[in-house]
Design goal:
2 domains, binds NADP nicotinamide-adenine-dinucleotide phosphate, 13 strands, seven-stranded mixed sheet, alpha/beta, Dihydrodipicolinate Reductase, domain 2, Rossmann fold
């Protein structure tokens, strides 16, 4: 399985490190004669590499960590054009996309994904902005072209939510989803509960590597709203919700008084995303709530995320993960690639 990796930032590097680290497990796991081979790497400004026989990942990781770029590597692997021509002309089976997630640049990376799908290439992505803005068109295109569009690590990287619902709870329809889908806000609220100010807690979350590049997206509830909207579109048949149509309140106005009151009741303050079917339409909200102690969401610690999925047949299912950061997302991408290879994910 020849992989073209688009993006070689913290997640792209973590994906490559995992491929190296798990080399022996992968040999045991994959059918005889099948291997996951990275044949191309594309970046925006730091060069591209390509080799039909597979790129030497360790050498590339070492070179990049010393020089901060890919250009200047062994000329055997140099690809003299940009990422777009790599995607549109390169010889590969599967595009693993882990470029910068940007709500403001609608179209940019999504266009490259469309080029890959149009060529019948399967795409695995962790880019929530792309899935949020383009889910329906990318899904339709992948179906037309007999490819797959896979994005389980774009919402809760540690939990393959969509694959779980599809394969483990077939036929069950999601009626509502309730939980924490942004780890940074959970981490920040926990630090505030322990006495830190909002700014101190944000700085610590950034230092710990669990915040988005722009932590305001976490704190103001935008990241949760984007992810809630993806869940609504994919699992609940909702149409696209522009952010202005979603009731969003971040954690900026959570007061020490709110924490004291919650503590007295044995409850905890969480940034809760709620997605519900109400009279045939799907409503989404994100806001801080006092969650009682008998609700598992109240027990989420640190940068954990967790959701209660209420279904029509299978009742309530609780899915949670305490993983965060590039390694977790890189693992999510690898997991999706392996699921695809094993044939579990089809168009
Ligand atoms: N880091 C995390 O903990 C985390 C957690 C959850 C989700 N994610 C998601 O994972 C994705 C990657 O995150 P990251 O932390 O690895 O980002 P990053 O360190 O900023 O790296 C982004 C990479 O994408 C490349 N890129 C950007 N635009 C491109 C384009 N148009 N064509 C080709 N390459 C392009 C960049 O190129 P240059 O090298 O030239 O700049 C860079 O290599 C994002 O969608 C993010 O939201 C990350």
């Amino acid at each position: 399985m020849n992989v073209l990796l688009l993006g070689f930032g913290s997640v792209g590097r973590a994906f490559c490190n995992l491929l190296k680290e798990q080399e022996f497990s992968l040999k045991e796991l994959l059918p005889a004669g099948v291997e996951v081979k990275v044949v191309g790497i594309g970046t925006k400004t730091r060069g591209c590499l390509f080799s039909r026989d597979g790129l030497p990942l360790k050498q590339i990781l070492d070179f990049e960590s010393k020089t901060g770029k890919l250009t200047g590597m062994d000329s055997l692997y140099a690809y003299p054009y940009d990422s777009e021509s790599l995607v549109s002309e390169g010889d590969y089976d599967l595009l693993v996309e882990c470029t910068t997630s940007s709500m403001s640049s609608r179209g940019g990376v999504a266009r490259l994904i469309k080029i890959a799908l149009d060529r019948g290439k399967t795409v695995v992505t962790c880019n929530s902005a792309v899935v949020y803005n383009h889910y329906f068109e990318l899904k339709e295109l992948s179906e037309q072209k007999g490819a797959s569009f896979i994005f389980d690590s774009a919402v809760i990287a540690g939990v393959p939510l969509f694959s779980f619902m599809k394969h483990c709870l077939p036929c069950a329809k999601v009626v509502s989803c309730y939980g924490v889908i942004n780890g940074t806000s959970n981490y920040v609220l926990e630090m505030m509960e322990e006495g830190s100010t909002l700014d101190e807690a944000i700085m610590e979350a950034v230092r710990k590597g669990c915040a988005e590049k722009d932590p305001l997206l976490d704190i103001e509830g935008t990241d949760s709203a984007v992810k809630a909207s993806i869940i609504a579109q994919v699992l609940m048949g909702a149409s696209f919700h522009a952010l202005e149509e979603i009731s969003i309140e971040g954690i900026r106005n959570v007061t020490p008084e709110m924490f004291r009151k919650a503590k007295k009741e044995g409850a905890r303050v969480k940034l809760v995303a709620k997605i519900q079917k109400v009279l045939g339409s799907v409503q989404i909200s994100v806001r801080p709530e006092v969650v009682p102690s008998d609700n598992p969401v109240s027990r989420l610690r640190g940068a954990s995320k967790g959701v209660i999925m209420t279904t029509d047949i299978a009742g309530e299912v609780y899915l949670a993960s305490d993983g965060f950061g590039p390694r977790q997302v890189g693992y999510g991408l690898l997991r999706d690639v392996l699921e695809y290879i094993s044939g579990k994910i089809k168009t």
